[in-house]
Design brief:
The structure holds two protein chains of two kinds.
Chain A: H1 2-31, H2 41-50, H3 62-81, H4 97-117, H5 121-152, H6 157-166, H7 173-189, H8 208-211, H9 217-242, H10 256-280, H11 289-311
Helix pairs in contact in A: 1-3, 1-9, 1-10, 2-9, 3-4, 3-9, 4-5, 5-6, 5-7, 5-11, 7-9, 7-11, 9-10
Chain B: E1 2-3, E2 6-7, E3 11-14, E4 17-22, H1 24-37, E5 40-48, E6 56-64, E7 67-75, E8 81-83, H2 92-103, E9 106-108, H3 141-144, E10 160-164, E11 176-182, E12 185-192, H4 200-204, H5 209-217, H6 224-239, H7 245-273, H8 277-298, E13 307-308, E14 311-312, H9 318-344, H10 346-352, H11 360-366, H12 370-374, H13 382-385, H14 406-430, E15 447-454, E16 459-466, E17 472-478, H15 481-492, H16 500-507, H17 512-515
Parallel strand pairs in B: 4-7, 8-9
Antiparallel strand pairs in B: 1-2, 3-4, 5-6, 6-7, 10-11, 11-12, 13-14, 15-16, 16-17
Helix pairs in contact in B: 5-6, 6-7, 7-8, 7-14, 7-16, 8-9, 9-14, 14-16, 15-16
Classes of the chains: A mainly alpha, B alpha+beta.
């Protein structure tokens, strides 16, 4: 029962991720005063890419071909670990939040290696910048997780969700700081404005896009899908940590429909908020990205301090 | 005409335009006097006069305190050499190299004698703009060898090169940029152009005047009116033809419409390059309204072929004037509103300010010109200082800034949008009645003329020589991007690679114009 539920939840994440991307793109287009593409546009793009023949550089090593599958697998695994609609599924004990950060890091390492593999200047330029952003984002992300872990006395996500959603309701001021920090990290890690611009065609300004310039067809499709999945996983992770109400407790099948509805509503809201923040922001100068992430780190640490000051 | 302490043998051939023949030895002395006076070199080109019984000739147009001085020196047919001007006016460098590639006229003892326009399309030693050049001689390396161009290398620990272009990710013109960087910091930028060399100057030869004017307008499409007006002005000067008063005013109207369209587009692009897509969409909505207005009133979105030799081909009636006046008022109010948003957007201001600085003293030394030059305190605007009709009656306010960064160039654009909208309304108010086109006087003998118009990007100059049969013999269209491209290399120094698209866009120079 719970195994099939686990599979269903992971599959749901994989299938719904492009829809979230489509929704964000749609909202952003509206807020920018454009007419929006249909919400299903990412699926069409994926379908188009899967139907194309891949063009691969002559000097590409097997790593270059392998990386997209690895990246996609990492994101699918991460999506399986995070409680999306049901809590405490079989996969969850496989990795705690610290291991989750490791799964994201693994995908990033492969992407950066693949980007440098071909030896084009844009690939290594993107890889270099990606590392600049992520080595600052990772510690901040860990700090956010530690704040939540201190409250629930565990680094296991099911425990955290259980404590925050299903025990006696309590207000944790520390989580407010952690939530803002998490938002900033999500923006940076998912290559969104103001750190990166996912829609730019200016190759010299790119971070994430510069790394995948040499990919085409199915490889590109897998990476694009993984990008959507990453945004989806970060969103559900944020929901599990800061808005967990509605996630079905362990073994409660009857609560699942409501949990699904709550999840869709929360994701829609989060997506709209993301596109709103993007619409009113401009991209910061590259060397201001460390300041941006430094602020996130400081907020996360503040959250932890406040936990010790007010909540223990 | 007096420049400095000497009286040069230059006579007026038009308003603020002077012309004269100099000994080749005097050219250098003239250039020095112009420089000392604070003037600039505007354009440099050559011609093959061997069929006229001479050798070659070198032409230089200088900006002086009393207008544009067009000096010509005859060169020998066997060894066409003239003194290097680039050590006085650095902007001459690429023009000298292009002149050699096209005509085989060499600047003596020039420091930089690398090729410029010649890639591998024609062999070394072939000079396409010579009159006896008929067709490309097939040469083995044409398609097989890559264009071996000696870039200047930066060496040292941790320096590496990023080659960008000529094919870019966006739909822009082709150009190659070679960055030498440490990390993301730019130590040197070197440009390589010529990818859009189309042989326009060769194509002009033997063309009739009307077709030639059409072609001139297509040298750089975003400056159509400026080039077309310059070419027509040159032709009319050469044939001593009168242009009806109303046609002149309508030409100014078209030029200002073109300026507003381009500035609106650029202001949008500047927003887009810092990922503020909202600004991009809003400015482009305004530009689109503006272009549709042009299409409706004058028959073409970019006003192509509205300016023709002898006058204009499109007129405006009372209903059109009311419509144009209405859209001017609406766009002025909306631009004001959008400027307030740009002004108050902290991240955008942070990206614009202190990015891509070209300091005024360096700008003066290197001959920075036009819109971008005015943002670095190079206060030259032919409409204000050397006005041709009808600008002599319009009192143009020049917009200048001293900062020389992206923000300054954006500010100049905002100021010029408002000034152009004011001028458009002024023109509509005072538009004289009458004919809009008069026939050109027939050509009796070989004649020459020069047109000079302040386009949206800067001063556009077209020199024309018409032979006795009334066909074009030599036409040289000069785009202000010639002078400004090298300044982009300077403005980029010390900036970071991801700021290049923004800095480049704030200049927004033409590739097609100087590639010819």
């Amino acid at each position: 029962m719970s195994v099939s539920l686990q599979l269903a939840q992971t599959l749901l994440a994989i299938l719904l991720a492009p829809l979230l991307m489509g929704w964000v793109n749609q909202c952003r287009a509206w807020l920018q005063g454009r007419s929006a593409p249909p919400i299903t546009q990412p699926y069409r793009t994926l379908r188009k890419l899967f139907h194309k023949d891949a063009v691969i550089a002559h000097n590409a090593s097997p790593l270059f071909r392998f990386a997209p599958y690895m990246i996609f697998a990492c994101m699918a695994l991460a999506a399986g670990i995070v409680p999306t609609i049901a809590n405490d599924l079989p996969f969850s004990p496989a990795a705690d939040v610290i291991a989750l950060v490791g799964v994201f890091a693994l995908a990033r390492v492969f992407l950066a290696l693949a980007a440098m593999d071909i030896g084009t200047s844009f690939g290594s330029l993107g890889a270099r910048r990606e590392m600049l952003v992520s080595f600052l984002a990772e510690p901040a992300l860990l700090m956010v997780f530690f704040t939540a872990s201190l409250i629930s006395q565990s680094t296991e996500l099911p425990h955290i969700v259980e404590t925050l959603a299903h025990k006696d309701f309590a207000i944790y001021p520390s989580l407010a700081f952690a939530a803002v920090a998490f938002w900033m990290i999500t923006v940076a890690e998912n290559a969104r404005i103001p750190v990166d611009n996912p829609t730019t065609h200016l190759e010299l300004t790119m971070i994430h896009e510069a790394m995948i310039l040499e990919y085409s067809a199915r490889h590109l499709a897998l990476i694009e899908w993984a990008v959507a999945l990453k945004l989806f996983t970060y969103s559900t992770l944020g929901i599990a940590l800061f808005l967990p109400w509605g996630i079905a407790p362990h073994g409660d099948v009857a609560a699942l429909p409501l949990a699904l509805a709550a999840m869709v509503a929360k994701l829609a809201l989060g997506g709209a908020l993301l596109s709103f923040m993007e619409a009113i922001s401009a991209k910061v100068r590259l060397f201001r990205a460390p300041e941006f992430l430094g602020t996130a780190f400081m907020l996360a640490v503040l959250g932890m301090l406040i936990h010790f000051l007010l909540e223990v | 005409m007096r420049i400095g302490e000497h009286d040069w043998n230059l006579d007026p051939i038009g308003r603020h335009i002077w012309r004269g023949q100099l000994e080749v030895g005097q050219l250098l002395a003239l250039a020095r006097e112009v420089k000392e006076e604070g003037g600039q070199l505007v354009a440099l080109w050559g011609a093959d006069d061997r069929r006229l019984g001479g050798g070659f000739s070198i032409h230089a147009a200088f900006l002086t305190s009393s207008g544009l001085a067009w000096a010509t020196s005859a060169l020998s047919a066997d060894a066409p050499v003239y003194p290097d001007l680039a050590h006085i006016f650095p902007q001459a460098d690429r023009m000298q190299r292009a002149t050699f590639d096209l005509l085989g006229i060499r600047a003596e003892s020039a420091v930089d004698d690398r090729k410029w326009l010649r890639h591998n399309a024609w062999a070394e030693g072939d000079f396409p703009l010579r009159k006896d050049f008929t067709r490309l001689t097939p040469h083995a390396s044409r398609l097989t060898e890559v264009d071996a161009y000696p870039f200047i290398r930066v060496q040292g620990d941790g320096v590496h090169e990023i080659p960008v272009g000529p094919i870019h990710a966006g739909t822009i013109e082709p150009g190659h940029f070679r960055f030498s960087v440490i990390g993301d910091r730019v130590l040197r930028l070197e440009e390589r152009f010529g990818y859009t060399h189309k042989g326009i100057e060769k194509r002009f030869e033997g063309m009739d005047i009307a077709t030639g004017a059409k072609l001139a307008g297509r040298v750089s499409g975003d400056s159509h009116s400026a080039f077309a007006w310059s070419c027509c002005m040159a032709v009319e000067m050469a044939t001593a033809s009168e242009v009806p008063e109303r046609a002149l005013w309508l030409r100014a109207l078209f030029l200002e419409i073109e300026r507003v369209a381009n500035h609106l587009g650029d202001l949008g692009y500047l927003g887009n390059d810092v990922a503020l897509t909202f600004g991009f969409m809003q400015f482009w909505r305004l530009k689109e309204d503006w272009l549709r207005m042009s299409a409706k009133l004058f028959g073409h979105r970019y006003l192509f072929d509205c300016i023709v030799p002898g006058g204009v081909a499109a007129d405006i009636d009372n209903a059109g004037m009311i419509e144009l006046g209405g859209i001017c008022a609406r766009i002025e109010a909306e631009v004001q509103e959008l400027k307030a948003i740009y002004d108050e957007h902290a991240t955008l201001q942070d990206r614009f300010a202190n990015t891509g600085i070209c300091k005024p003293d360096l700008a003066a030394r290197l001959g920075f010109t036009g819109l971008a030059g005015r943002a670095s305190a190079q206060a030259w605007d032919a409409r204000a200082q050397f006005p041709q009709a009808p600008y002599d009656q319009l009192d143009v306010n020049m917009a200048t800034q001293r900062r020389g960064d992206v923000l300054a160039r954006a500010e100049v654009r905002f100021a010029e949008v408002h000034e152009s909208l004011r001028l458009i309304r002024e023109i509509l108010k005072r538009l004289p009645t009458g004919e809009i086109r008069a026939p050109l006087k027939p050509v009796q003998a070989m004649c020459e003329g020069l047109g000079w118009v302040e386009g949206w990007r800067g001063g556009v100059l077209v020199a024309v020589r018409i032979d006795a049969s009334g066909k074009l013999d030599r036409v040289h269209p000069h785009d202000p991007s010639w002078q400004n491209w090298p300044l982009l290399e300077i403005g980029m120094l010390g900036n970071i690679v991801p700021d290049f698209p923004l800095i480049n866009k704030s200049f927004n120079l033409s590739y097609s114009g100087p590639d010819l």
